[in-house]
Design goal:
heterodimer, A: about 190 residues, three-stranded antiparallel beta sheet, 6 helices, B: about 60 residues, alpha+beta, about 15% helix
Protein backbone atom coordinates (compact mmCIF):
# COMPACT_ATOMS: atom_id res chain seq x y z
CA UNK A 1 0.00 0.00 0.00
CA UNK A 2 1.43 3.38 -0.95
CA UNK A 3 2.57 5.54 1.96
CA UNK A 4 1.63 9.22 1.68
CA UNK A 5 4.54 11.65 1.84
CA UNK A 6 5.20 13.16 5.26
CA UNK A 7 4.30 16.80 5.74
CA UNK A 8 1.90 19.22 4.12
CA UNK A 9 0.55 18.77 0.57
CA UNK A 10 1.76 21.62 -1.61
CA UNK A 11 0.10 23.21 -4.62
CA UNK A 12 -3.12 22.05 -6.23
CA UNK A 13 -2.07 18.80 -7.91
CA UNK A 14 0.72 16.23 -7.74
CA UNK A 15 2.47 17.78 -10.74
CA UNK A 16 2.20 21.25 -9.17
CA UNK A 17 3.74 19.83 -5.99
CA UNK A 18 6.63 18.31 -7.97
CA UNK A 19 7.23 21.65 -9.67
CA UNK A 20 7.21 23.54 -6.37
CA UNK A 21 9.71 21.14 -4.81
CA UNK A 22 12.03 21.12 -7.82
CA UNK A 23 11.96 24.92 -8.04
CA UNK A 24 12.68 25.22 -4.32
CA UNK A 25 15.57 22.75 -4.61
CA UNK A 26 16.97 24.61 -7.63
CA UNK A 27 16.85 27.91 -5.76
CA UNK A 28 18.43 26.36 -2.67
CA UNK A 29 21.39 24.99 -4.65
CA UNK A 30 21.73 28.25 -6.55
CA UNK A 31 21.75 30.60 -3.55
CA UNK A 32 22.76 28.38 -0.62
CA UNK A 33 19.98 29.74 1.58
CA UNK A 34 16.36 30.60 0.84
CA UNK A 35 13.48 32.03 2.83
CA UNK A 36 10.18 30.19 2.43
CA UNK A 37 7.24 29.04 4.51
CA UNK A 38 7.95 26.55 7.26
CA UNK A 39 5.72 23.91 5.62
CA UNK A 40 7.59 24.15 2.29
CA UNK A 41 10.97 24.12 4.06
CA UNK A 42 10.01 20.93 5.87
CA UNK A 43 8.99 19.25 2.63
CA UNK A 44 12.14 20.49 0.90
CA UNK A 45 14.63 19.25 3.49
CA UNK A 46 14.51 15.46 2.77
CA UNK A 47 14.00 16.15 -0.95
CA UNK A 48 17.11 18.34 -1.24
CA UNK A 49 19.22 16.09 0.97
CA UNK A 50 18.43 13.11 -1.26
CA UNK A 51 19.70 15.14 -4.22
CA UNK A 52 22.89 16.04 -2.32
CA UNK A 53 23.45 12.35 -1.53
CA UNK A 54 23.24 11.65 -5.25
CA UNK A 55 25.67 14.50 -5.89
CA UNK A 56 28.12 12.96 -3.42
CA UNK A 57 28.07 9.69 -5.36
CA UNK A 58 28.76 11.80 -8.43
CA UNK A 59 28.50 9.30 -11.31
CA UNK A 60 26.64 9.74 -14.60
CA UNK A 61 23.57 7.76 -13.55
CA UNK A 62 23.05 9.89 -10.44
CA UNK A 63 23.65 13.06 -12.44
CA UNK A 64 20.91 12.07 -14.90
CA UNK A 65 18.54 11.33 -12.03
CA UNK A 66 19.20 14.76 -10.51
CA UNK A 67 18.75 16.39 -13.91
CA UNK A 68 15.18 15.10 -14.04
CA UNK A 69 14.46 17.25 -10.96
CA UNK A 70 16.83 20.22 -11.24
CA UNK A 71 16.53 21.20 -14.91
CA UNK A 72 19.25 23.85 -14.91
CA UNK A 73 22.50 22.21 -16.04
CA UNK A 74 24.74 24.91 -14.58
CA UNK A 75 23.19 24.45 -11.14
CA UNK A 76 23.53 20.66 -11.41
CA UNK A 77 27.17 21.18 -12.34
CA UNK A 78 27.66 23.37 -9.28
CA UNK A 79 25.86 20.77 -7.12
CA UNK A 80 28.16 17.97 -8.29
CA UNK A 81 31.44 19.93 -8.31
CA UNK A 82 31.10 22.23 -5.27
CA UNK A 83 28.22 21.28 -2.97
CA UNK A 84 28.69 17.48 -3.12
CA UNK A 85 32.46 17.45 -2.30
CA UNK A 86 31.86 20.09 0.40
CA UNK A 87 29.66 17.54 2.26
CA UNK A 88 32.04 14.59 1.76
CA UNK A 89 32.74 14.27 5.51
CA UNK A 90 29.16 14.94 6.67
CA UNK A 91 26.96 11.85 7.15
CA UNK A 92 23.61 13.43 6.30
CA UNK A 93 21.98 16.52 7.75
CA UNK A 94 23.13 18.84 4.95
CA UNK A 95 20.47 21.49 5.48
CA UNK A 96 19.35 23.57 8.43
CA UNK A 97 15.90 25.08 8.98
CA UNK A 98 15.54 28.10 11.27
CA UNK A 99 12.12 29.58 12.02
CA UNK A 100 12.00 33.35 11.63
CA UNK A 101 8.46 34.19 12.70
CA UNK A 102 5.28 34.90 10.79
CA UNK A 103 4.88 36.71 7.46
CA UNK A 104 3.22 40.09 7.58
CA UNK A 105 0.60 39.66 4.85
CA UNK A 106 -0.99 36.33 5.77
CA UNK A 107 0.67 35.47 9.11
CA UNK A 108 2.23 32.36 7.55
CA UNK A 109 5.10 30.91 9.65
CA UNK A 110 8.30 31.50 7.70
CA UNK A 111 11.68 29.77 7.86
CA UNK A 112 15.16 30.03 6.42
CA UNK A 113 16.53 26.78 4.93
CA UNK A 114 20.24 26.79 4.21
CA UNK A 115 23.07 24.45 3.31
CA UNK A 116 25.11 23.72 6.43
CA UNK A 117 28.64 25.09 6.29
CA UNK A 118 31.57 24.61 8.62
CA UNK A 119 33.25 21.61 10.19
CA UNK A 120 31.32 18.51 11.20
CA UNK A 121 30.66 18.50 14.97
CA UNK A 122 32.08 15.64 16.99
CA UNK A 123 29.75 12.75 17.83
CA UNK A 124 27.74 12.86 21.06
CA UNK A 125 29.85 10.26 22.91
CA UNK A 126 33.18 11.98 22.19
CA UNK A 127 31.65 15.37 23.06
CA UNK A 128 30.46 13.95 26.38
CA UNK A 129 33.94 12.57 27.16
CA UNK A 130 35.54 15.93 26.33
CA UNK A 131 33.08 17.72 28.60
CA UNK A 132 33.86 15.30 31.47
CA UNK A 133 37.63 15.88 31.24
CA UNK A 134 37.09 19.63 31.03
CA UNK A 135 34.92 19.57 34.16
CA UNK A 136 37.52 17.53 36.10
CA UNK A 137 40.24 19.99 35.12
CA UNK A 138 38.10 22.93 36.18
CA UNK A 139 37.49 21.38 39.61
CA UNK A 140 41.21 20.77 40.10
CA UNK A 141 42.02 24.34 39.12
CA UNK A 142 39.36 25.67 41.50
CA UNK A 143 40.75 23.61 44.38
CA UNK A 144 44.28 24.88 43.73
CA UNK A 145 43.05 28.46 43.56
CA UNK A 146 41.10 28.05 46.82
CA UNK A 147 44.21 26.73 48.61
CA UNK A 148 46.26 29.72 47.43
CA UNK A 149 43.55 32.13 48.49
CA UNK A 150 43.30 30.80 52.04
CA UNK A 151 47.07 31.25 52.42
CA UNK A 152 46.92 34.78 51.04
CA UNK A 153 43.89 35.58 53.22
CA UNK A 154 45.59 34.73 56.54
CA UNK A 155 48.59 36.81 55.44
CA UNK A 156 46.31 39.79 54.73
CA UNK A 157 44.66 39.62 58.15
CA UNK A 158 48.03 39.82 59.90
CA UNK A 159 48.97 42.80 57.80
CA UNK A 160 45.67 44.52 58.64
CA UNK A 161 46.17 44.01 62.39
CA UNK A 162 49.67 45.44 62.20
CA UNK A 163 48.35 48.41 60.28
CA UNK A 164 45.71 49.06 62.97
CA UNK A 165 48.29 49.05 65.76
CA UNK A 166 50.75 51.35 64.00
CA UNK A 167 48.17 53.91 62.87
CA UNK A 168 46.10 54.05 66.06
CA UNK A 169 47.57 57.46 66.88
CA UNK A 170 46.50 59.15 63.63
CA UNK A 171 42.74 58.70 63.25
CA UNK A 172 42.33 59.63 59.58
CA UNK A 173 44.91 57.17 58.25
CA UNK A 174 43.54 54.44 60.51
CA UNK A 175 40.13 54.71 58.95
CA UNK A 176 41.56 54.60 55.45
CA UNK A 177 43.69 51.51 56.14
CA UNK A 178 40.95 49.61 57.96
CA UNK A 179 38.51 50.23 55.15
CA UNK A 180 41.12 49.02 52.70
CA UNK A 181 41.75 45.95 54.78
CA UNK A 182 38.05 45.13 55.02
CA UNK A 183 37.65 45.68 51.30
CA UNK A 184 40.53 43.29 50.67
CA UNK A 185 39.02 40.74 53.03
CA UNK A 186 35.46 40.77 51.69
CA UNK A 187 35.83 39.43 48.13
CA UNK A 188 38.14 36.65 49.25
CA UNK A 189 35.71 35.38 51.85
CA UNK A 190 33.06 35.54 49.16
CA UNK A 191 35.23 33.39 46.84
CA UNK A 192 35.86 30.89 49.59
CA UNK A 193 32.15 30.48 50.25
CA UNK B 1 -32.58 23.18 7.34
CA UNK B 2 -32.50 24.05 11.05
CA UNK B 3 -32.81 27.79 11.73
CA UNK B 4 -32.97 29.82 14.99
CA UNK B 5 -36.54 30.34 16.21
CA UNK B 6 -35.84 33.52 18.20
CA UNK B 7 -33.61 36.51 17.86
CA UNK B 8 -30.49 36.23 20.04
CA UNK B 9 -30.63 38.93 22.73
CA UNK B 10 -27.94 41.58 22.99
CA UNK B 11 -27.18 40.25 26.46
CA UNK B 12 -26.62 36.69 25.29
CA UNK B 13 -24.48 37.84 22.36
CA UNK B 14 -22.38 40.01 24.62
CA UNK B 15 -22.04 37.29 27.26
CA UNK B 16 -20.76 34.91 24.59
CA UNK B 17 -18.33 37.46 23.19
CA UNK B 18 -17.06 38.33 26.67
CA UNK B 19 -15.24 35.00 26.58
CA UNK B 20 -13.12 36.03 23.58
CA UNK B 21 -9.81 36.80 25.25
CA UNK B 22 -6.28 37.10 24.02
CA UNK B 23 -3.37 35.47 25.79
CA UNK B 24 0.05 37.05 26.08
CA UNK B 25 2.66 35.06 24.11
CA UNK B 26 5.33 33.23 26.10
CA UNK B 27 8.61 35.07 25.64
CA UNK B 28 12.21 34.25 26.38
CA UNK B 29 15.28 36.49 26.40
CA UNK B 30 17.60 36.41 23.40
CA UNK B 31 20.98 34.82 24.22
CA UNK B 32 22.73 37.44 22.12
CA UNK B 33 20.99 40.77 22.76
CA UNK B 34 18.88 39.92 25.85
CA UNK B 35 15.75 41.35 24.25
CA UNK B 36 12.49 39.39 24.64
CA UNK B 37 11.78 37.06 21.70
CA UNK B 38 9.51 34.15 20.82
CA UNK B 39 10.96 30.76 21.78
CA UNK B 40 12.36 28.53 18.97
CA UNK B 41 12.24 31.45 16.55
CA UNK B 42 15.10 33.71 15.44
CA UNK B 43 15.34 36.98 17.39
CA UNK B 44 13.60 39.77 15.51
CA UNK B 45 15.85 42.41 17.11
CA UNK B 46 19.31 41.08 16.32
CA UNK B 47 18.39 38.36 13.79
CA UNK B 48 20.28 35.55 15.55
CA UNK B 49 19.25 32.06 16.63
CA UNK B 50 21.57 30.10 18.94
CA UNK B 51 24.09 32.95 18.48
CA UNK B 52 24.10 32.27 14.73
CA UNK B 53 23.15 35.15 12.42
CA UNK B 54 20.09 33.96 10.48
CA UNK B 55 18.44 37.10 9.12
CA UNK B 56 19.33 40.74 8.83
CA UNK B 57 17.61 42.58 11.69
CA UNK B 58 14.66 44.61 10.40
CA UNK B 59 15.98 47.84 11.99
Amino acid sequence: MPQPAKGARLGGSPSHERHILSNLATSLFEHGRITTTHAKARRLRPFAERLITKAKKGDMHNRRQVLTVVRDKSIVHRLFTEIGPQFAERPGGYTRITKIGNRKGDNAPMAVIELVTGAVAASTSSRRAARRTARAEAIEAANAAAAEETAAHSHDEEAAEEAKETTAEVEETTEAVTTEATEDGKPETGDKA
Amino acid sequence: MAVPKRKMSRSNTRSRRAQWKTAAPALVNCQQCRNPKLPHIACSTCGTYNRRQVIEPSA
